[in-house]
Design goal:
Number of strands: 4
Protein name: AtuA-like ferredoxin-fold domain-containing protein
Helix content: 10-25%
Strand order of the largest sheet: 1-2-4-3
Length: about 110
Amino acid sequence: MKLRQIAHSRTGDKGNVATISVIAFDEGDYPFIAEHVTAARVAALFAGVASGPVSRYELPALGALNFVMKGALGGGVTRSLALDAHGKGLSSALLDLELPELAHAGRHPLT
């Protein structure tokens, strides 16, 4: 199952730092997401993109995780030759992360 089946995301950027928030559609899925979407997995997924560390911040009251990736924007928006210099495509790549199947059928109605 893809992460996008149970969560959506938002991104941000500041200089050469990209942030990606992963937000569960259903708050009951947050513990599952927190267990399987680790900083190590995100760092491995973006190994060719982020040259610095990846930090994870948990926001359980919001059912969200926030990942901060340093060195992920090719030097920053004004210095990068990347077509997606603001990192918006990074959230789509993260939502393609493969997860184990959930034991329940509580999926977002749009998936």
